[in-house]
Amino acid sequence: MDLPPARRRAIRSNALGIGIATGAYGLSFGAISIASGLTIWQAQALSVLMFTGASQFALVGVLGAGGGVAAAVLTAWFLGARNGLYALHVAPTLQLRGWRRLAAAQLTIDESTAMAVAHEDTAPASRHAFWATGISVFVLWNIGTGLGALGASLLSEPEILGLDAAIPAGFMALLWPRLKDRLSWAVACTGGLVALALIPVTAPGVPVLGSALVAVVAGTWAWRRA
Amino acid sequence: MIWLAILLGAAGTYLEKLIGFILPATVLDRPIVRSIAGLLPVALLAALVIVQTFAVGQAVAVDARLAGLAVAIVALMLRAPFLVVILSAAITAALLRAAGLAA
Predict the structure, then answer these.
(1) Residue of chain A whose alpha carbon sits nearest to that of B100
(2) Residue A190 touches partner B, C-beta closer than 8 Å
(3) In 3D, which of B45, B85, B48, B47 has the Cα closest to residue B69?
(4) What InterPro entries would the database entry show (chain B) (predicted)?
(5) Which residues of A touch B50 (CB under 8 A)?
(6) Structure confidence by residue, pLDDT tens digits, A167-181
(7) What is the mean pLDDT of residues A31-53?
(8) What is the ipTM of this complex?
């Protein structure tokens, strides 16, 4: 608990900045959910209960494209698997038991983990960074979702505004920072081609799941080579 | 059906997070798991980009969404913030449709 006040302030203002950026992105999640046929409450429930952006966008995207429950849920789970690895990484620093551990689990996402890792020089700083970022993002992501859903539900025909074109752009923006080497580019291109090939021959939702095989094959190959 | 997907999806993604706190690190933290888990979002997000750009049900179509995606990629290359990326895609598609240049 011996965290210098200046350090604490710096972490908090950083966490707030990340929260505001994520909140803006929550606006688009709310709007896209409505455009995909969800109600305001359904969009809000996803942001409270699921609280992991890529999985939320994917679930909504697969349902909106006419995919079944199984395909939508599996895609969301596959995308959420990385959070388990984040939890493994932050758990020893956070040292939690009981309800705090249950709460921390829900807040374990890209942003909170990245901030905890960035402040790993001391354990109190890392803990503070995790909680401040997790809470800030949770609150602002949910406010953003509500406002976005409310705004979009006031529009009669989302397609006139091009909201359907915002959906692939949103996935591209999530993908972009992950394209950091030749392997990730190769996996992205192959995954996209596999999905394209599967669109006419499988039920909606299945093309996205099919691309997961590309990650399994490429991941195994990279592991063998390492 | 949508509620079922929301509840099942949320329960599963929460368990994924919780398992990392409960299981000893040695059970899950293997290089092959790390390698595959790192690439899963890349493959799935790329597939979602393609499906959301080209699919109309089970048909493949080229329409205003593709132009929107192209503009979004340019915005990403210019390091634009998320909201700008999304809006530029939506506005591009809306303008092309209003002008009757794309479906």
Answers:
(1) A160
(2) yes
(3) B85
(4) Brnchd-chn_aa_trnsp_AzlD
(5) 168, 192-193, 195-196, 207
(6) 899 899 989 999 999
(7) 95
(8) 0.90
